Amino acid sequence: MTAFDELMAFQRETSALGQIAGRLGWDQETVMPRGASPQRAEEMAAIEAVLHARRSDPRVAEWLDQAAPQDEVGKAQLREIRRAYDRAVKVPADLATAIARTTSAAQGTWAQARADEDVSAFLPVLEEVVSLKRQEGEALAQGGDVYDAMVEDYEPCTTGAQIAAIFDEMRPRLVALRAAVLERPEPAALTGSFDELTQMRLTQKLAVAFGYDLNNGRVDKAVHPFSSGSGLDVRITTRTSETDPFNCFYSTIHEVGHAAYEQGIDRGYLLTPLGRGVSMGVHESQSRIYENQLGRSRAFTGWLFDQMKDAFGDFGIADADAFYATVNRVHNGYIRTEADEVQYNLHIMLRFDLERALMAGDLQVSELEAAWNDRFKADFGYAVDKPSNGCLQDVHWSVGLFGYFPTYSLGNVYAGCLYQALRGAVPELDEQLAEGDTTGATAWLREHVQQHGGLYAPREIIQRASGVEPGPEPLLDYLEQKFSGLYGL
């Protein structure tokens, strides 16, 4: 075997072990008995110790020096392996293990604190997580910006300053659009009771309609919807509320966007660095375009209206036009995952600024709840009513995902660029969506984005697919056009 062959064989074993760790995480959030949390923390720590040892194995450096790939794919594999190796060797093994143990335990603590509306029960373990992640960031940054080092895990070649500049460009137009919309009469909200088993049956239908392959996936329920896995085993979760089926349906469509990306990657990349999404921003571009530009479009909501009538009977919305307005209703709310398209990115900007301050040491964990509540009141104009609607609503910080939140908005920006190109490439898109047929859109996305996995850098794959340099203007133009039409602006 050549050095390249040996490296790739070693990498495939490491990736397989990583998939097992991911499956443990899926189990923890879906079906694991609550009392198993302490043991699961030790299990996660043990497997992370094995993974870290492999990722920082000195033989990887030797193979990288000796490997001579013959094509573009081989060179991309080496690029990604080298990037991961360079990061892994900077983090002490005991620190990597401690992070895995602590974040596994913290996830259970967060879930209970959220259920009990008790921030004080969560803050001590969050303090530990923040301290450990800051140590990791310092090790990775080696004198540079700690938050930039954290962002690199989720959106390579992107800095906090670059993200802040994008957000500064977005905020004025978003705030102006929100102000104009909120002055107009609000469409009717969905009311009534919607059987949760019926929701799950319809959500399975939606998943399949958007191209999710249930032969290599499954749909389960969790407190916080997520997608897990890659290649031949890609799982999603959703959640139900008896009074809000949209939460279930659009969480499902969103997670199917993630899952379709992973299922659509060239199978030749299976269990290699190229066999997963290239970044969380690109991942979010898929989930957001599925959920919003496609799933909340006038064409598709017309089809969904008929599906809901068949499933639930008369549910109080007069016709497809009224249903479209209800689905896209801009309204006050606390929850990021339930936010309308106009206000969603403002929720992300809040989290971005707070976590950046936490990593810089400018904000202490003990001050987090007050800082969140003050910022929310300033940005949205009303007060947080309870912790589960405030700083306890998201799972991300409990599991150490600092630097992850801004990729949601980067995904929206990328989705805006992709949708602009998609409209030109599939002129019959609306006619297809009105029949519940997403294949024109999803096939285009699979060809131009999903199949490539990690072959190209994040911004490069968006530019190659859309033909434009990624920026927020297409997204902002789309939002202004859509909501001006909905609200008669």
UniProtKB/TrEMBL annotation:
It catalyses: Release of a C-terminal amino acid with broad specificity, except for -Pro. PROSITE patterns: PEPTIDASE_M32. InterPro entries: Peptidase_M32_Taq. The keyword Metal-binding applies. Signal peptide: none annotated. Gene3D superfamilies: 1.10.1370.30. Its EC number is 3.4.17.19. Broad specificity carboxypetidase that releases amino acids sequentially from the C-terminus, including neutral, aromatic, polar and basic residues. This is Metal-dependent carboxypeptidase. It comes from Ruegeria atlantica.
